[in-house]
Design a protein that fits this description.
mainly alpha; Rhopdopsin 7-helix transmembrane proteins; two-stranded antiparallel ribbon; 11 helices; 2 strands; about 0% strand
C-alpha cells in the first residue's frame, strides 16, 4: 500500500540497457505502459486533491471537537478520535503521492521510506479502529459494558492497534527505495523470492480488510438483531446507519483488496502474461486504491456528523463564535466547561 503501487517498476528502462551488443529478442515481451503513466498523471493528482481537501476538513473538525470540547468521552468517542487522527495522517501523504504520479519521486530515499510507512500505518490502523468501533457499538446495545476499567481497556486497545500498524509498516521502512531515481518502490533481495513479496501483500489484505470486515460483519449483524428484538425503541434510524456503514465499507474496500489479491497470486504463479491485461490491472489498482482512500473522507459523516450529540456540539461552537463575532454582550451562551457531567454519547442517538 505504498507509492510504488501506482506505477509498476517496469514502467521505466535505462536507455543504455537497450543499446550495445545484446540479443534484442529478449525484449520482445517488454510491456510499455505509457498510457498507464499518462492516466496516473491526470487521475491521481485530481483525485488526491479532492480527497485531501474534503478529508482534512471533515477529520479536522472531528479532532477539534473531541479533543478540545467534548470533556467526557465514551470508548467509541476515543476510537473515533484515533480514527480521525489516522485518517488525517494518511491524507497528509497524498500530496507526496500526487507529485510522485506526475514527476516521479524527487524527495530522496529517506522520505520514500517514511512516507510509504506512514501510509501503511494509518491505512491499517484506520481499518482496525473501524472494527473496534463495531465491537463497542455491539456492547453498548447489549449494555454489557460496565464503566469500571473502561478507560484502561480503551488505552490498551489503542496502543495495540497502533503497535500492530507500525509492525506492518516495517517492510516499507526496510525494502522501499528510489529505483532509477524515478520511482519509490519495494526492492526485495533475490534471497527472499516471490513468496516473501506475496506474503507481505496477503498480510496487508488480512489485517487491512479481511479481519476488520469479519469483525464488523459479525458485530453489526448481532447489533441489528438485538435492536430488532428490543421493544419500545426507534429502530429504523440505527439500522439505516448500520447498513450504510457496512455498504460503504464493502463498496470502497472490497474492489481494492480483490485487485491486491490478484496481484499476490500473480506474484507467486505469474498468471498475467498478456501486456494488455497487465495494463488493465495497473489501471484497476490505481482506481480502486483511490476509492479505498476516499473512505477516510466518509468516516466523519458515517461515524460522527450523523450523530445527534455531535451535531449539538457543532451547534454550540457555531453559536458561541457566531455570537462573539456579532459582539452581543447580553446573549447568554452555553459554556463548554460546565460543571454538569456531559451525557455519554450513544452510538445510535442519530
Amino acid at each position: 500500500m505504498a507509492l510504488g503501487h501506482n506505477q509498476s517498476a517496469d514502467y521505466y528502462y535505462e536507455e543504455n540497457d537497450l543499446n550495445g551488443t545484446h540479443d534484442y529478442s529478449q525484449y520482445e515481451m517488454v510491456c510499455i505502459k505509457e498510457e498507464v503513466r499518462n492516466f496516473a498523471k491526470v487521475f491521481l493528482p485530481a483525485f488526491y486533491t479532492v480527497a485531501f481537501i474534503v478529508g482534512i476538513a471533515g477529520n479536522s473538525i472531528v479532532v477539534a471537537i473531541y479533543a478540545f470540547y467534548k470533556k467526557q468521552k465514551t470508548k467509541t468517542d476515543v476510537y473515533i478520535l484515533n480514527l480521525a487522527v489516522a485518517d488525517l495522517l494518511l491524507l497528509f501523504t497524498l500530496p507526496f503521492r500526487a507529485v510522485n504520479a506526475v514527476h516521479g519521486w524527487v524527495l530522496g530515499t529517506a522520505m520514500c521510506k517514511i512516507t510509504s510507512a506512514l501510509y501503511t500505518i494509518n491505512f491499517t490502523s484506520g481499518m482496525q479502529f473501524l472494527a473496534w468501533i463495531s465491537v463497542d457499538r455491539y456492547w453498548a446495545v447489549k449494555k454489557a459494558l460496565s464503566p469500571a476499567g473502561a478507560a484502561r481497556s480503551t488505552r490498551l486497545v489503542c496502543v495495540l492497534v497502533w503497535t500492530v500498524a507500525i509492525l506492518l509498516s516495517v517492510p516499507q521502512l526496510v525494502f522501499y527505495t528510489v529505483n532509477h531515481k524515478v520511482l519509490c518502490v519495494p526492492i526485495f533481495p533475490h534471497t527472499l523470492g516471490t513468496t516473501m513479496k506475496a506474503s507481505i501483500q496477503m498480510l496487508e489484505i488480512c489485517m487491512g480488510f479481511v479481519l476488520p470486515f469479519l469483525v464488523m460483519g459479525v458485530c453489526y449483524f448481532l447489533t441489528a438483531r438485538t435492536l430488532i428484538k428490543t421493544p419500545n425503541i426507534k429502530k429504523s434510524r440505527p439500522l439505516k446507519v448500520l447498513l450504510a456503514v457496512v455498504i460503504v465499507f464493502i463498496v470502497t474496500q472490497l474492489p481494492y483488496n480483490i485487485v491486491k489479491f490478484c496481484q499476490a497470486i500473480d506474484i507467486i504463479y505469474a498468471l498475467i502474461t498478456d501486456c494488455g491485461l497487465s495494463k488493465r490491472v495497473d489501471l484497476a489498482i490505481q482506481v480502486t486504491e483511490g476509492i479505498a482512500l476516499f473512505h477516510s473522507c466518509l468516516n466523519p459523516v458515517l461515524y460522527v456528523f450523523m450523530g445527534a450529540s455531535f451535531k449539538n456540539y457543532i451547534m454550540k461552537v457555531a453559536k458561541k463564535y457566531g455570537s462573539w463575532r456579532r459582539q452581543r454582550a447580553n446573549v447568554e451562551e452555553i459554556p463548554f466547561d460546565s460543571e454538569a457531567p456531559t451525557e455519554p454519547t450513544s452510538s445510535f442517538s442519530i
